[in-house]
Amino acid sequence: xxxxxxxxxxxxxxxxxxxxxxxxxxxxxxxxxxxxxxxxxxxxxxxxxxxxx
Length: 53
Hints:
This protein has helices spanning 2-9, 11-23, 26-29. It is mainly α. Helix 1 (2-9) runs antiparallel to helix 2 (11-23). The longest helix is centred in the first third of the chain and has 13 residues, at 11-23.
């Protein structure tokens, strides 16, 4: 799942990530997800805007 996320993150970096995962052997041991859904919960309540002049 994460290899797919990294390689699809940006076309600019896709080839670099694919080469890295292949070179390190991570692509060989990764399990291809059949049906994955990921939810990220983010608490932004303590973030305050910063005004730059």
